[in-house]
Amino acid sequence: MIKILDFEQPIANLEQKIEELKNLSNPSINIMDEINILQSKADKLLKQTYQSLNAWQKVQIARHQDRPKFFDYLNELIEDFIPLAGDRCFGEDLALIGGFGKLKGRSVMIMGHQKGTDTESRVKHSFGMAKPEGYRKAQRLMKLADRFNLPIITFVDTAGAYPGIEAEERGQAEAIAASIQMGINVKVPILTIVIGEGGSGGAIAIATGNHIMMLEHSIYSVISPEGCASILWRSSAKASEASEAQKLTAQDLLQLQLIDKIIPEPVGGAHRFPQETIKVVCETIHNSLETLIQKKMDYRDHRRQKFLQMGQVGL
Description:
By secondary structure, the chain is α/β, with parallel strands linked by helices. Helix content is about 50%, strand content about 15%. It is built from 14 helices and eight strands.
C-alpha cells in the first residue's frame, strides 16, 4: 500500500470510499453511478492538488519511499550491466553503484545513489548516503569512462553524503571535492538526472553534467530544509519555511538556469505511477544523450563554463 502524505489525505478518503463501494456484495444496488461520481471528484482533486504544490510538499514527494529508485531505472534502461566495486583504497560502498552497460546498443558508464526499498536494503545501502570510498569509486569509474571514451550517465538521489565520524576520518570533504573535479575534467559527455533528493555535496559530487535534468517533483539544494532551519532558526520545525526560501524545486532551478530540463511526472507523482515514470525517464535519457553526443563539442570546456557561470552574480 502506498504511503499517504498529509496533504493527500482528502484524496485518500475519496479513494477509500470508492474501494468500499466496489467491494459491496449486494448486487441489487446499482452503485456504478456513485463510483463514477466519486472517481471524478478524486481525479479532479488529485489534479488540483498536484498543480498547486508548495516547496515543502515537493520535498515530501521527493523523499517518498515508493518513488522509483536507481535500480528500477537501471534495470529498464541498461542491458548487460557490469557492476564495478571498490575504490582501490579502502573498500566498497553500496550507497553509490556504478559500472559498464549498454543503452540501446551504445556502451556507457552509469552510476547512481541507491537508497533501498525496505528496511534491510536501506541499511545495506546507507540510505543512499555515500562515504569517501563511494566518491573515490565514482572517480575511478569516471577515469575508466574517459579512458575508453564512454559517455557517463549519473542518477542523483541522496539526502547528502554520509555524516558519520568515520567518513570524516577517511576524508569525506576531500573525496567529494576530488569527485567534482574529476567530473569537470573528463573529456567525455556527462548526463545527469535528479530522480528524488539532490542533497548538498553528496549530490553534486556526481552531478557535474553537461546536461542536467530533474524529475518534476524532485529537489536539489545545498542543504536539507531541516538543516537550513536548524542553522537559521535553531529549530528543524521551520523546515517548511526554509524549503520555500531555498528555491530547491525543479521549477525554481530551471528558472535560475541551474538545470537544463524538467521531466514531467504523471499526475499524482512518480510514487503513484512508477512504471509510467520509469518509461518516460528512460526514453528522455536516451534522446538527451544522443542529442548531446551529436553536438561533438568540447565537453570539458562546456562543463567548466557552465558551472563558472552559475557562480556569477550581477553587480
